[in-house]
Amino acid sequence: MKSALHILTIVLICISTLSYSQQKPQIIYKDASGKVLSEQEVDRITKGTYSMSEQKQKNGDKIIVLAPMTQADIENIQAEKTAYANSQIGKLFPSFSAETLDGNLFDTDAQKGKIQVYNFWFIACKPCVAEMPILNKLAASFDSNQVVFIAPAFDKKTAISKFLESQAFDYQIVPDALKFTQALHINSYPTHIVVNQKGVITAVFVGNSDDIGTLLEKEITALLKS
Prior knowledge:
Layout: H1 2-21, E1 27-30, H2 39-46, E2 50-56, E3 62-68, H3 71-88, E4 97-99, E5 105-107, E6 115-120, H4 126-130, H5 132-140, E7 147-152, H6 157-163, E8 172-174, H7 178-183, E9 191-195, E10 201-206, H8 212-225
């Protein structure tokens, strides 16, 4: 009896260990004090202006720290966003080549003559996800032979594929694009960059905006008429 019980205990431990090892990585939201935030608290914070940082855990979990900003913080951040946007407009967009999520090769040098619209985002960015339906409508309203919509993200291919099972996003998604994002010195998300037919940056929109669809449409339409 003892032997059978011992074997059963070992089996249960193995099953428990296997189950734990197969658990999927989680995204956990916390405030600056380390308190785990409820979904309602996350929604409340992300509807305002906030700072966000990411901490990766050894088990694959991601901890996203959210903190509401003071008015002074907001003004400083806005000034930084404006300065960044102004510093990029008029520059040549850097050359970039990578495999998209669907396995195609995207190369900026092959896009000359087309307008390029970039959305820099990541899965855990609530404002990035919230604006996706607007961006999908935008992408569907223009001829793909004239305008291309690209979405570099620093998440891995497998994570993005899983994310897309419950969220449609109709841009050409480029996974694992952290180096490219860093090369553009992007540190706020979402960030949208519009590049004209000659490969020059004409507009930059940093941070979430309820008017992002209108802003991008206006810029694209103006470039098509130029």
